[in-house]
Amino acid sequence: MVTTAIKTFLKYDTDIYFTVFDFDEKRLAEKNKEYGDMSRTRFVQGDLFDTRVTGRLIQKADLVLNAAGPYYKTAIPIMNMCIQNRVNLCDLNDEPEASMDIIDMDNQAKAAGIGVYIGLGASPGLTNIWAKELMEKLDTTESIDTVWCTGDEGKIPYGRAVISHAIGIFGGHRSALSYRDGKVSKIPSFVIPETFNFTPPLSEITLYELAHPEPLTISHFYPKLKTVRNLGGLHPQAQNGFFRGLSQAVCRKDLTEDETIDFVQQIMSGKLGSLKCWKFAIKGMREQVRKKQMSQKQFWNFIWKGLRGKSYDYRAGLIVSAIGKKNGKQVELTRMTSGSGKNSFFNSMASATGIPFAALSRMVLDGKMAKEHKTGVFAPEAWVDTDTFYRYMDKYGVSKSDLMLPIKNESVT
Question: Is the pTM here over 0.85, yes or no?
Fold first, then answer.
């Protein structure tokens, strides 16, 4: 995802130079080939927890971009090094507790005179910006829903940190933090279903309330809200049961996280994978069928495609809705992505996350925030001017019509 952000910078900006720091030499070599413009990129292999080496690199930077997960391990050490070296930080952090740990360091960031900007991707990121935009159109707001779905990207195995994050939010955490009745509340993670209608080709799909930063950060910056939820999942529908079964097995210690990650990477590469892991994945999908969250046909279609190493067409989307009052009437405002697939902005999670990350990071470099947002810790809903953001997205090749549909306004009875 940060690869897409860097490639976006290299394509559209001539005044940005990068040092790409990674522990994995193989990935660095791949990035070296992929980025193309070697005059503006430098590659350094090392351990980010080595404060001597990482601190020296940060000291020379105008801005640090953190896309190194899992964030519960990396977010605070990197923030501490940015504080020590007085360098602004932009972070892709999509973990709820790690996001709040950073927000809790607001005073330290202010004392160092730096800005720390978190959750700068799709969800969190676009979802937070749209929540802010909708709230600004209402006189008062009671509730916010942020909703995401991503799909099958073919034989492109995700990194281990991404799969580890998925194992957690699909039920490995057991419980998730949501925001209900004006306070942070615990809910069972990936248990409460709701069906949503996205822009085609995704259309109707059942998703689940889960552990994500938006309920915590949005309610933190807008404490008068009564409810903030995040719901998400995967297309096709069977993938949700697939991951749910695996994550529950890890939670019960029937599988180790490492063998589960290996299995998922094998499946995403078009291989058969471990029969031991398949047993738990199938159990999760059968549970979906039993609860009528998926049909038998969907289940067997997924198995048949998996056995043949076949992929689904990519389908994905974002929805944000706000319920509140406008001119004395109770209304629901909804914003959603304009579509997904090969010829759209939302053609992969890398694109949907990486281009907003580039646009928001460039806004930070250019100082496009209010004076009171130049030092401290902020999620997008706290500092982003939506019109400015859309101009930066347009500069990076994504027009408003490519990104989203007009806001839908419905009366609530």
Answer: yes
